[in-house]
Design a protein that fits this description.
Distance between the termini: 40 Å
Shape: elongated
CATH architecture of the largest domain: Beta Barrel
Order of helices and strands: EEEEEEHEHEEEEEE
Strand content: 35-45%
Number of strands: 13
Length: 168
């Protein structure tokens, strides 16, 4: 399966305790759902993990994952992102998108002029932010991913229409 057919659903944040348990940060709407999408894979697809959640913990979930029996093994996986096969994930309503589907889309303004391409999608707690590599700019363009600023997302045409504030 190609990496484009997988979606990042979480990350390993290191060891939890000394018995080989890991702390997982889930990117799922319902954090516990991450266990429903196993097996999970490393980003490059070379490692496969089964996941059994053990308990909710501060800023994440405690879990046991295959191949990890010690604190040292768990700590060695800190920062590894966890990817699920797209076909195991739920279908989304028309106005919701997986971040992976937005990255690389062409960005145009409401007049049809090319603005650039979506480079990344960030969420620091107050909503999604699109990072756009904009034509003719030395710095990236960061825009809130709201209906007012991004009125149209057309995955079939691989483009996003933006209506940025006047000062941009």
């Amino acid at each position: 399966m190609s990496p484009f057919e997988r979606i990042c659903v979480g990350a390993i944040a290191g060891a939890f305790g000394v018995q080989g348990e890991v702390r997982i940060k889930s990117f799922c709407t319902e954090p516990e759902d991450i266990a429903n999408y196993t097996p999970l894979y490393s980003e490059d697809g070379t490692r496969e993990f089964s996941v059994k959640l053990t308990r909710p913990i501060t800023n994440g979930l405690g879990a046991r994952i295959s191949g990890v029996a010690t604190k040292e093994q768990a700590d060695a996986l800190r920062g590894v992102t966890l990817w699920a096969d797209r076909d195991k994930l739920p279908s989304l309503p028309d106005d919701e998108f997986y971040h992976a589907d937005l990255i690389g889309l062409e960005v145009v303004d409401t007049g049809g002029a090319k603005v650039g391409k979506v480079h990344a999608v960030h969420n620091h707690g107050a909503g999604d932010i699109l990072e756009i590599n904009a034509l003719g700019r030395k710095t990236v363009l960061l825009l809130p991913f709201t209906k007012a600023i991004v009125p149209t997302v057309d995955l079939a045409a691989a483009r996003i229409v933006i209506d940025p504030p006047e000062d941009l």
